[in-house]
Amino acid sequence: MSTHALSSGDLTADRRADYARMLGEGGDPGAAAELMEQALELVPGWAAGWFRLGEYRQKAGLAGAAEAYRKAVELDPQDIFGAGLKLALLGEAEIPSHPSSRYVERLFDDYADRFETALVERLDYVVPQALAAMIAATDRKFRLAVDLGCGTGLLGPEIREHVGRLEGFDLSRNMLTKAAEKQVYDHLAQADLSLSPEASGLFEGEAMHRADLITAADVLMYLGDLETAFALISALAAPDAMLAFSVEDSGEPEAFVLRDSMRYAHGEAYVAALCSTNGFDIVATQKTIIRKDGGNSIHGILFIAARAA
């Protein structure tokens, strides 16, 4: 559900918010902010409204954007709109180690119906094909592949011929529904890569160290600090496991940076160190343009790593 679809519960406030949306989309965020202020006078406890006010003020260059985002977080501690990320980008808060899980879940639940059209047809997204080609080049067949952040299942069809059993996990239930329609995965379930192994949803019973192929195509950019994610991967990985994944390339010495897109980019040295710490040797890398965003090319790094002997 989009931010604009979340009602205040007050008809007059909703009407003013709708007018504000039209003004904002029409290129007048200053006037949109004024109308949102009027709406919030009627419903001061409306978290979505405060987030929208922050966006309008920020786009218009008006004071008070951070104040509005802080109010949104205060009213919605789970931060489903990502106001905490906005505050970090404004320099008003520390960059979080990862965004709110509820924000990521809502983002992709809302995006699921148009995800493939937007990403593949409009944004020249190439990671599934490129990563699958790197996997094929290893000339291995795999007993069990676990596709982390599988989304609508774009990678699944690309690697299916190399895999005996294919499992997919994602935070968004709507994305999992789309993946199921492809009838490629043997098992699909919800999981959260920002949580501990016990709470993540990836492990059932004695299911640790079970996968000999683990993939993560364009999912790690929705996490900043990757230590928890790599601990999960290490727990999933069989002794002979291979890991195939992508990151957005920060080109910086820092471990990770938060970009205006509200996605994280990672440093190559940081990723390599995490692989080593968690028992993987990098055997192949490929730097490439992974997608477009706002007309700009997004540079990424594809990795193949093998469980260290």
Query: What proportion of the residues is helical, as a percent range?
Result: 40-55%
Shape: elongated
User: Which oligomeric state applies?
Assistant: single chain
Structural class: alpha/beta
Number of helices: 13
Q: Count of DSSP E strands?
A: 9
- Uncertain runs: none
Integer tally of domains: 2
What CATH calls the topology of the largest domain is Rossmann fold
Q: How big is the Rg?
A: 21 Å
Mean pLDDT: 94
CATH architecture of the largest domain: 3-Layer(aba) Sandwich
H-E order: HHHHHHHHEHEHEHEHEEEHEE
Report the CATH C-level class of the largest domain: Alpha Beta
Walkthrough of the structure:
- This protein has about 300 residues and is α/β, with parallel strands linked by helices.
- The chain has two domains: about 5-95, Tetratricopeptide repeat domain (Serine Threonine Protein Phosphatase 5, Tetratricopeptide repeat), CATH 1.25.40; about 110-305, Vaccinia Virus protein VP39 (Rossmann fold, 3-Layer(aba) Sandwich), CATH 3.40.50.150.
- It has helices at about 10-25, 30-40, 45-60, 65-75, 85-90, 100-110, 115-120, 125-135, 155-160, 175-180, 195-200, 225-235, 270-275, and strands at about 140-150, 165-170, 185-190, 210-215, 235-250, 255-260, 265, 280-295, 295-305.
- The strands form two sheets. Strands 3-2-1-4-5-9-8 form a seven-stranded mixed beta sheet, with helices on both faces. It has a two-stranded antiparallel sheet with strand order 6-7.
- Helix 2 (about 30-40) runs antiparallel to helix 3 (about 45-60), helix 3 (about 45-60) packs antiparallel against helix 4 (about 65-75) and helix 4 runs antiparallel to helix 5 (about 85-90).
- The longest helix is centred in the N-terminal third of the chain and has 15 residues, at about 10-25.
- The relative contact order is 0.10.
- The mean pLDDT is about 95.
